[in-house]
Amino acid sequence: MTVDSIISTARKEKRVYLNEIESKQILKEAGIPTTEIRLAKSKEEAITLSRKLGFPVVLKIVSPDIIHKSDAGGVKLNLKDEQEVAKAFDEIMAAIKKNEPKAKIEGVSVQNMARPGVEVIIGMSKDPQFGPVLMFGLGGILVEILKDVSFRIVPLAPRDAREMIRELKGYPILQGYRGQEPGNVEVLEGLLLKVSNFVENRPEIKEMDINPIFAYKDGAIAVDARVILESE
Ligand code: ADP
Ligand code: MG
Predict the structure, then answer these.
(1) Which of 223, 226, 227 to mutate to test the pocket of ligand 1 (most atoms within 8 A of CB)?
(2) Which atom in ligand 1 lies closest to the alpha carbon of residue 139?
(3) Is the pLDDT of residue 209 over 80?
(4) Nearest atom, ligand 1, residue 211 CA
């Protein structure tokens, strides 16, 4: 699936929200590493795909009506064998039936469980004056409660990427906090520049939310992604 075919499928279906699988395909094209991810339409398929990807895996609901998957009970992490996958599948379906009874369900996504890292987020939104703007922040409570984030207008110069990471109050966390593995700042600068470059050439994309990315000492991987298209 190419970016163009993902966009035209969504347009045909009159959707502007891309699901996690489509969004990660778009990230791949932009040069952002993501977890391997597949769509399973049944429990049996989820088990087969888990075996193929290798345990541990993560199961998540795929539905055009559910944007915050964990709030709806639609995310199950660190599943170590087929029994755990089967149980997680049933639990997700039961939770969605209860919490989002009207949601159209496409299936569940199966993906590799990424090892923990420093959680960061990259976002893109469009400002009426400035056009595409990138946001960078350290994940979790730092973003949600302390709003410790930085912004730059697209296109970013290398210096913008350097600054927007270093100006965060939480920057020391990236350098390794209390013996925790640091996140590689140069790698994250590279990701910001790749996203900038990508959205500059893709005016069809209205918003991007890569939340979270796990940063490691020698790399980084996107474990969740959401892309919203312009409504033509
Ligand atoms: P939501 O739609 O609620 O944002 P996410 O896909 O972000 O759902 O999953 C919730 C949390 O689960 C993430 O913030 C992350 O901490 C963890 N998580 C999600 N996917 C993975 C994965 N593949 N490997 C490890 N942890 C993951
Ligand atoms: Mg998320």
Answers:
(1) 223
(2) 14
(3) yes
(4) 7
The region, left, alpha or beta by phi > 0 then psi within -120 to 50, assigned to residue 168 is beta
Residue ID of nearest Cα to ligand 1 atom 16:
212
Q: What's the average model confidence in pLDDT over 108-120? A: 97
The ligand with the least distance to the CA atom of 66 is: 1
* Placement of tokens 């013996």 in the chain: 179
| 20-55 tens-digit pLDDT | 999 999 999 999 999 999 999 999 999 999 999 999
Q: Which tokens is 102 given? A: 């009207």
The model's pLDDT over 83-107, given as tens digits with 9 standing for 90+, comes to 999 999 999 999 999 999 999 999 9
- C-alpha to C-alpha distance for 30 and 205, rounded to whole angstroms: 12
3-state per-residue secondary structure call for 19-46: CHHHHHHHHHHHCCCECCEEEECCHHHH
Going from the Cα of 30 to the center of ligand 1, the distance in angstroms, rounded, reads 20
Amino acid in the structure at residue 211: N
* Distance (Å, whole) CA 133 – CA 123: 8
Minimum CA distance residue for ligand 1 atom 21: 223
Contacts with 221 (C-beta within 8 Å, 6 or more apart), sequence order: 33, 34, 35, 114, 117, 213, 214
Q: Please tell me the total number of residues recorded for the chain in this structure.
A: 232
- Give the closest residue to 227 by CA, choosing from 5, 1, 6, 55: 6
Is 174 a residue whose pLDDT tops 90? yes
Contact 88, 79 (CB under 8 A): yes
- Span from the CA of 94 to the centroid of ligand 2 (angstroms): 21
